[in-house]
Specification:
Blueprint lengths: L1 H10 L7 H31 L6 H10 L2
Length: about 70
């Protein structure tokens, strides 16, 4: 229970009229945080996966030809 209290405080200011409402707000903030983290993980994974997809020799030849 102490971990939940610390986690809720780490998410931001206590919101709600009573303890139950504040817990619901903290739970919603947790879901939003994890959705942000999931989205960021997919973006990073896509960047890493496609890091070296282009052929540099083809890229350089096209650059030289188009000059």
């Amino acid at each position: 229970m102490i971990m939940w209290r610390l986690w809720a405080k780490a998410l931001g200011e206590k919101a709600g009229k009573n303890k139950k409402e504040a817990d619901v707000v903290a739970l919603i903030r947790t879901v939003v945080l994890f959705s942000y983290m999931t989205t960021t993980a997919f973006i990073v994974a896509g960047v890493v996966r496609h890091w070296n997809d282009i052929e540099y020799s083809q890229f350089l030849n096209e650059k030289c030809i188009n000059r």
